Fold this sequence. Notes:
Pathway: Cofactor biosynthesis; molybdopterin biosynthesis
CATH topology of the largest domain: Molybdenum Cofactor Biosythetic Enzyme, Chain A
Radius of gyration: 31 Å
Structural class: alpha/beta
CATH superfamily of the largest domain: MoaB/Mog-like domain
Largest sheet: 6 strands, mixed
Protein name: Molybdopterin molybdenumtransferase
EC number: 2.10.1.1
Number of strands: 27
Number of helices: 7
CATH architecture of the largest domain: 3-Layer(aba) Sandwich
Pfam family, one: MoeA_C
Strand order of the largest sheet: 8-5-7-6-10-9
InterPro entries: MoaB/Mog-like_dom_sf, MoaB/Mog_dom, MoCF_biosynth_CS, MoeA-like, MoeA_C_domain_IV, MoeA_C_domain_IV_sf, MoeA_linker/N, MoeA_linker/N_sf
Strand content: 25-35%
Mean pLDDT: 93
Distance between the termini: 35 Å
CATH class of the largest domain: Alpha Beta
Amino acid sequence: MPAIDCCSQPGLMPIESARETLLQALKPVSGTEVISLAQATGRVLAENVVSTVNLPPCDNSAMDGYALRFEDLASGLPLELIGKSFAGAPFDGVVNPGTCVRIMTGAALPAGADTVVMQENVDAQGESIRITCDVRPGDHIRRCGEDVAEGSSLLQAGERISVPHIALIAAVGVGNVTVVRKPVVALFSTGDELRQPGDALSKGDIYDSNRIALLAALAQMDLDVLDLGILPDNKQTISDALERAAKEADAIITSGGVSVGEADYTREVLEELGEIGFWKVAMKPGKPFAFGFLQGTPFFGLPGNPVSALVTFYQLTVPALGVMKGIKWSGPQTLQAKLLKPLKKKPGRTDFQRGVYRSDENGELVVEPVGAQGSHILTGLAAANCFIVLARESGSVEAGDRVAIEPLGVPLG
């Protein structure tokens, strides 16, 4: 069966084009804040971090042992032990010819010493020692500034701060960093049938899983949220909420109301108050996804079906919100795996089937679909650890074929 050209279907945009449109249309939010290192994981630097000290700050020992002068070893005579050097309590004298100092790991190298011999290679007898192995000059010494030199730039503005970054910054004595301000994301669901989890259901009601899941995902992304709750299918109520969101937030996410039903008002209101960049994406699940701007504030309209909402959020909204946080999107992590069960597919939309991948007994990556693949079936997504990505132009695939997979990460993994 020949592949369908999605670009020829009015309004149905390939996911690659949709994602690129989002990334090009958005930019980091303005404003910065100063925070402590303990709060900085995952945040984006707004200023360079420059070291004002050397790391290590002085020559120090890499081993427990003895600090001495290398030239004294040529005679083969015992060396006199004249003191001790501990981390935080250095020896303040001088290692003169024929002498040595007991030294601990991390302790400052005493003046006059140029070599450290491990304690395992020393025969200590009272107040003197003999060396029992070959030694090289400068052994077991960490040099001042060998890790970081005073005045050097550690991290550049725009870098995302990781835990190793925090360790490095703390090691040079910097306690606070200037980072890009957190975007504020306004969020609401629409639907007369929606109820808050924990409330009683009447006939025809369902629980609002989308908004709750998105609140958790946004928290995992370390974003501030303006939660506007569940809105009824009322055009004026939705209009008021969108106008408030545009004034108070940096981005707006809605769930439901962007399809073509008689009560789907969100898209209608957005067209009246703002502009829609695109609507409907050539992806499955998740075709009815809307992106636009409302009074300059970006808007992401997610489908109402729960799996569709989370898949479009992960594939389209997460990269876009990353840009707003100051993070450059580098693309999804993609692996190749052998498919264990056949999958049905029609050409026309990129398919994100939910799957479980693992290494088999031969160390080869294998994957199989998990659960039913309907856009309303949450159990499969809950059990999955990856998406099986079937290209837009591809058809069905057979067991044994190699397929692309995307391991699930934050905020779904």
